[in-house]
Amino acid sequence: MMEMLKIENLSKTFGENRNKVQALKNITFSVNKGEFISIIGASGSGKSTLLHLISGIDKPTSGKIYIQDEDISKYNMNQLTIFRRRHIGVIYQFYNLVPILTVRENIELPIRLDNRRIEDKKLKYIIDLLNLSGKERYLPTQLSGGEQQRVAIGRAIINNPSIILADEPTGNLDTKNSDEIMEYLKYSNKKYNQTIIMVTHNEKIALKSDRIIKIQDGSILFDKKNS
Amino acid sequence: MRLNMEISLKLAITYLLKNKKRSIVTILEITIATILVTSIFLILNIYQNYMINIKKSEGNWETRFGNISYKKLYGLEKNSDITEIFVTKNLGMANLSLEGIKQCINLTAYDENAFKNLGIKLLSGRFPQNEKEIVISRNYGKQNKNVTLEIDGKKIKYKIVGIIEPTEDDIITLEENQIGAITFLNKSNLKSNDSINAYVSFKNKWHINDTSEEIANVLKFYENEYMQEQNLDLNIDLIKYYSIWDIIDERDAQIKFLVIFLISIIVITSSIIIYSIFNISIVEREKHFAVLSSLGSTKKQLCKIIVYEAIIILMISLIIGTVASMGIFKYTFYYFQTVLTNMNEALALACKNTIITVPYTKILFAFILIAITVFIAISLPIIKIFKLSILEGIKGRNYLRLKDKYKKTNYKSVDNLILNRNKKINSYKHISIVVGITISTFLFFIVRSYSININNVYSKQNSNIYNYTVEVDKEHVDDVKDRFWKTGTIKKMYSYMENSFFIQLNEDKINSSLKNVIQQNPKVKNEVFFTNITNELKCHVYAMDEENYNEFIKQIGINNIKDNECILLNYSDVKTDYYNGVYMTNYKTGDYIELYLNSKGDGTFSLTSTEDLAKFDMNKVTPYGDNQKKVKLKIASVTNQKPNSLLTYSSEIPNLCIIVKENALNNIEKYLYGISENDDTFVEEKMIIRVFANSRELLDKELEYINVDNKLSGEYMLKGFHEETNYNLQRWEITESMMCILIILCVITNIASIINIIVADFEEKKQYFYILISIGMTRKQLLKMILKEYSKYLFIALMIGILLSLGITYIIYKYKINFNDLYKFKIPYIEIITTLFIMLFILIVIMNFINRKIKKGNIANYINIKMI
Predict the structure, then answer these.
(1) Does residue B697 lie within any of the structural domains?
(2) B168-182, B373-387, B446-460, B561-575, range with the lowest pLDDT
(3) pLDDT recorded at residue B360
(4) What burial class does residue A16 get, using C-beta atoms within 10 Å of its C-beta: 0-12 exposed, 13-18 middle, 19+ buried?
(5) In angstroms, how far is CA B293 from the centroid of its own chain?
(6) In this complex, do A57 and B860 lie within 8 Å of one another by their Cβ atoms?
(7) Residue B212 near residue B234, CB atoms below 8 Å
(8) Binning pLDDT at 50, 70 and 90, where does residue A198 land?
(9) What's the pLDDT score for residue B353?
(10) Which residues on B lie below 8 Å from A96 (Cβ)?
């Protein structure tokens, strides 16, 4: 199987001297193409930090991150941003939609940022898929939490990224909405063979993925496949 | 209830402390507004005191009861409303004979107080101390000599103890061969029926006119109303300054206009900025207010929080503002005092006597004005709280509503999409920034543009605060000129000869505009025409020196004029009264005008000597009226422009003026006076020298040398200052400086507030900026987008500010300045370019700040916060 993501001895330290906190300690693992993995752990264990490093919105203190054999840890912030918009889709716990843009505009944002034209057919397909038809011209404030997260998923998949990173995508939702979101993620994973790395503290949700990595105090406690 | 109030107050204080930066900017804004408004009132107060002192130095009295009998003075002395009385007596015309000099003297007697209070300027010597001493307004080099004056056939010996400048009355009323003299008035020698002039000052400065009339009526000073009208005078120049709002003088009215204009601008600017700051603070706290509301807080209690915040800020600002304005003003006042001291002795004295008083009522008025401004500014944000929906508030982003028509998506790029959406959603912020910058640029440009153009007028008019006119015998002109140049006293000098004759204006030659003025105000006719019967008009003939003459004919576009030709100045530039812009005659180029010597209307014609008639070349003489001769001059050009030598010199306007060649005036005089052309014994040739000095001190020194020490041979007559010009320019200079200080303060506040609004705007948007980065917007793209937004604000504001200010200045300029051809409106290009650079600099500072903030901020910290 093709290796999509490889992490080698990844460490991240925040603060200095007495305030120094080591969020990640020499983490090493790899993820294959089309794999859906969950990273679980208690609050403050370092799982979100790991996701931020993979997405390139933060830089590691040491270690390497390879995405499709490309070492992104040597990229500067600008290169990381461009890499992210072309190859990675990100979903956040608090949706992080741009409040002044409509549903449609939020979904097509990564493509427009790359100065590419959006295919109407594709956009319509995603809107229908995410059950957002008729709400294209709504502002995020006019949507429920579940709907907002669906818009965030739409924004993450519009670009056909190789990897989708989801940081507690169901953390702010009720069971019904959580299940729906998980269904969409799984659908995307299967249909487009996308690699999904999901951070969650909910073990039940994690069980829906192919593989679970548990992080504790910045180190991998276990890395196991789901039966 | 008490508990509720305390909670609201506590919340208000907590918020102010939590948002220290914003609280400080708000306090700064209101403080500067307070400084500006109180400073304006202080300036007004000081100007008022200053002008009162100036006017008092010219005549410290309020009412003159002229020609009352001495016995009635007792009634005035007993009046408790009157604080001071001084007395003068007209002694009449006297003939002076002094070692061959024959002169007509108008003699007046002053009591001790009159010398102190009537603004008599002593050039040398001292004032008379008894009835046998006099001071005169012409220097014969005979100070401390005895002279005999013949009054009503009685010969009285006087000792000349001093030389004075001619009084204003002397300049107006006395003929050229008459001078003024003053002796001491001993009231104990007056008889009860002697006619005197009583000058009085009142305790209460209000209703002086009514009080004076009442006194005149009760004490029966005058037999009838006409007599009263002729003899009762008010010192309007002084009285009007007791209440600044009563000033009707055009130049002072400009100050009144300026005060109202500046206060309006300050109030409007402050309201907008305070509104923006409070609005942002309320939008930020919508959720907080909604939560409080859901917990049981009433809308009234929520509003109280904002009102308390406003009151706390207002109190701090008013205290700091008042103390600061007093301090700043005290400092700047001493600066202006120094400036004025260097300008003019009289002004320096007036300034020295001006006391900085605290105008409590005006400061209270300023407080009320600022408080009203603040409460008006917060009223709209308060209404917003009343309209707040608890549910939407708790959900957050209550204000994010957008009509479908604004949800256009066909923008070329993401930054355009976001910019336009932002503009629609945050229109209030957009407007605040644009209005703030517009006001700053508007204020700056209106001052600069007005200043540049007014300075243009002054420089064109060669106006100078140190100008002086000296009349010199023609034979000594070169001596005087040399003396002035050699001592480096002057920067410009014009010399010319002048004389006045009469012309008769036929009905068809009277311009319709003059006719209209006469119809509207019949009194004008008597002032323009010497007599009603013949439409006689005084015609001033000027013969300028060669340099001035050449400059002038070049200016009006003609090559030369012959000896029997003239240039007609067909224009009145007296703008302060009904002569405004009147074209007096219908004369055209090629027409003839005929000058004659004596008024036909008074019926008394006499030549210097009847024998002189025999000297006339009879072939040139045209018989006219009472044996008078007239000179026929062809009009070579008609112009509404004045030669530089006559600019600012308007005392003879609106009488008709003509310009002739230097020798032509000589010929006209000889011809009309009946002196043979070859006769050189005619010595009445005086030349006027107008000098524009480099410094008042040098000029005074030189004039003293010429007039008092009499070190140059000959006899010189001082014609006095052109005070109107002096004050005009001084007023403008002081006003401009004051305005600049105020405008700079205003602009600084605006810039601080704009930066505050922009920073608040950035802080508010920061989270979604980071979201944009997290989903793939590069920092370069983000900065480009922000730069685009703020450059757009700046550009729009700059354009509106410039166009609006230039438009308004142009209208004012056109309205005020009638010399359309001569004074072209100037556009302040340098200021426009400078402002563009300043704006660019501000933009760079803002972008640098934003760039550093974005660079410094950790995206991860922002994307884990619930935004909506």
Answers:
(1) no
(2) B446-460
(3) 77
(4) exposed
(5) 57
(6) yes
(7) yes
(8) very high
(9) 59
(10) 771, 774-775, 863, 867
Q: What percent of chain B is modeled with pLDDT above 70?
A: 69
Would residue B395 count as lying in a domain? yes
| Cross-chain residue pair A94–B773, CB shorter than 8 Å | no
A99 vs B768, B780, B860: nearest CB: B768
**Segment B199-213 mean pLDDT:** 85
Chains A–B, number of C-beta pairs less than 8 Å apart: 108
| Interface residue B865 vs chain A (CB under 8 A) | yes
Tell me the residue length of chain A: 227
| Element spanning B536, H or E | strand B536-544
The verdict on residue B674 lying in a domain is yes
Best residue in A54, A57, A115, A199 for a mutation probing chain B (most B CBs within 10 Å): A57
The residue type at B810: Y
Instruction: Quote the minimal CA–CA distance from B394 to chain A in Å.
Output: 12
Summarize pLDDT for A101-146 with one digit per residue, the tens: 889 989 988 888 888 888 888 889 889 988 899 988 888 888 888 8
Is position B699 within any domain? Answer: no
Pick from A58, A81, A95: CB nearest B776: A81
B92 and B196 housed in the same domain: yes
Task: Tell me, yes or no, whether B667 and B543 share the same domain.
Answer: yes
Does B772 contact A at CB distance below 8 Å?
yes
Q: Is residue B415 scored above 90 in pLDDT?
A: no
**Nearest-angstrom CA–CA distance, B177 and B182:** 17
| Residues in contact with A34: Cβ distance below 8 Å, sequence separation at least 6, in sequence order | A1, A4, A189, A193, A194, A195
Residues of chain B in contact with residue A137, where contact means CB-CB under 8 angstroms, are 404, 407
3-state secondary structure B495-525: EEEEEEEEEECCHHHECHHHHHHHHHCCHHH
Does residue A8 register a pLDDT over 90? yes
**Total length of chain B:** 868
Q: In whole numbers, what is the pLDDT of chain B averaged over residues?
A: 74
Q: B431 is in which domain, residue-wise?
A: 406-461+724-868
Q: Which residues of B touch A155 (CB under 8 A)?
A: 775
- The answer, yes or no, to whether residue B616 has pLDDT greater than 80, is no
**What is the complex's ipTM, to 2 decimals?**
0.84
Judge: A77–B779 Cβ closer than 8 Å, yes or no.
yes
Homologous superfamily (CATH) of A3-225 is P-loop containing nucleotide triphosphate hydrolases (3.40.50.300)
Count up the domains in chain B and report the number: 4
Task: Show which of B684, B699, B733 is a domain's final residue.
Answer: B684
- Sequence ranges of the domains in chain A: 3-225
Residue whose pair of structure tokens reads 């730069």 in the numeric block: B787
Contact A109 B395 (CB under 8 A): no
pLDDT, position B250: 54
> For A192-201, B154-163, B275-284, which range has the lowest pLDDT when averaged over its residues?
B275-284
Distance from the Cα of A78 to chain B's closest Cα (Å) equals 6
- Cβ distance B772 to A98 less than 8 Å, yes or no, reads yes
pLDDT recorded at residue B606? 42
Closest CA to A170 of A178, A159, A161: A178
Among partner residues A57, A93, A115, which is closest to B859 by beta-carbon distance?
Answer: A57
B223-234 pLDDT per residue, tens: 888 888 888 888
